[in-house]
Amino acid sequence: MALKLYTNSFSRGVVVDWLLIELGIECERIEVAFQTEMKTAEYLKMNPFGKVPVLVDGDVVIYELGAVCAYLADKFSEKGLSPAFDDPQRGVYYRWLFFISGPWEAAATDRMLGLTEVTAEQKTSIGYGDYDDAYNAFVLGLSEAAPYLCGEQFTAADVLVAAMLFWQLKMGEVQSHPAIERYLQNVSQRPSYAKFAEFFSHAG
Ligand SMILES: N[C@@H](CCC(=O)N[C@@H](CS)C(=O)NCC(=O)O)C(=O)O
Fold first, then answer.
1. pLDDT number for residue 201
2. Which class is domain 88-198?
3. 42 vs 32, 47, 131, 148, CA distance in Å?
4. pLDDT profile of the chain (204 residues), mean per 10
5. Which of 7, 108, 151, 203 reaches 20 to 30 Å from 33, CA-CA?
C-alpha cells in the first residue's frame, strides 16, 4: 500500500520532504491545515497531539518527526540513508537521532520560552543538563563530522540535524559556531539541499 504523509508546508514536515528527495521515493503528500484539520476526531486518532508530520504505511501510523525519518530510512535501507544494522556507526546514528529529537529540542524550546534559570539540583534531573551543556555537546559532536555525522555516509540523522540548525539559525535561536558553519557547508553540497532550501524558504 502507498505511503501517505500528513504534513503542512509551513511546518517541520518539510524535513520529511527533504528526506524523501534523498530517498527518491514516491509518497502521497496530504496537506493538513493548522488548528482545524489537525484537530478533527479522525486526525486525532492518528496523532493524539493533533500535530504534523504523520506517516501512514498501510496499517502502521507513525508520528514524531524523528521516528518518521528513521522509519523511512530503514524501510528503504537500500538507499543508504541509515548505517547497516551491524555497522558500529549505527550507534553514532542513534545518538544523533535521539539527541536532536530529545535533549536538543527540549533545551532549545526551554531557552526560547525563557526557562533558563536552572539550579544545580534541578540540573541533575533535567535530561539535557542546562542549555550550555547541550550546546557544548552539540558543537563538540559537529566538530567530529567528517564530512557528515556518521563519517562518509550521509544519513537521515544529517537531514534532521542540519534542518534543525538551518531553521534555528534563520530564527536566531542558536548561536553560530565554526563547527556549525563547517558542518552546514558540508551538507549544503548535497544536490537535495537546493530543493530543501526552496521548501524551507516558504516554511517561515
Ligand atoms: N514532537 C513532534 C512535534 C510536532 C510539532 O510540534 N508540529 C507542529 C508543526 S512544526 C504542529 O503540528 N503544530 C500544530 C499544533 O500544535 O496545533 C514531532 O517531532 O513530530
1. 74
2. mainly alpha
3. 12, 9, 38, 40
4. 92 96 96 98 98 98 98 98 98 98 97 92 95 97 98 98 96 97 98 86 64
5. 108
What span, in angstroms and rounded, lies between the C-alpha atoms of 167 and 96? 17
Mutate to test the pocket of ligand 1, among 14, 16, 49 (most ligand atoms within 8 A of CB): 49
Q: The domain 3-79 is classified under which CATH number: 3.40.50.720, 3.40.30.10, 3.40.50.1460, 1.10.287.3510?
A: 3.40.30.10
Rounded Cα–Cα distance for residues 81 and 68 (Å): 13
- Cell numbers given for 148: 557528515
Please provide the distance, in angstroms rounded to a whole number, between the alpha carbons at the two ends of the chain.
33
Q: What distances in angstroms separate CA 204 from CA 69, 116, 175, one per listed residue?
A: 21, 25, 19
Q: Which residues line ligand 1 (CB under 6 A)?
A: 11-12, 34, 38, 50-52, 64-65
Q: How far is the CA of 49 from the centre of ligand 1 (A)?
A: 8
User: 4: buried, middle or exposed (CB in 10 Å: 19+, 13-18, 0-12)?
Assistant: middle
The residue nearest atom 5 of ligand 1, judged by CA position, is 51
For atom 3 of ligand 1, which residue has the closest CA?
64
C-alpha cell at 122: 534541578
Output the nine-digit C-alpha cell for 123.
Answer: 540540573
Cβ atoms of 61 and 54 closer than 8 Å: yes
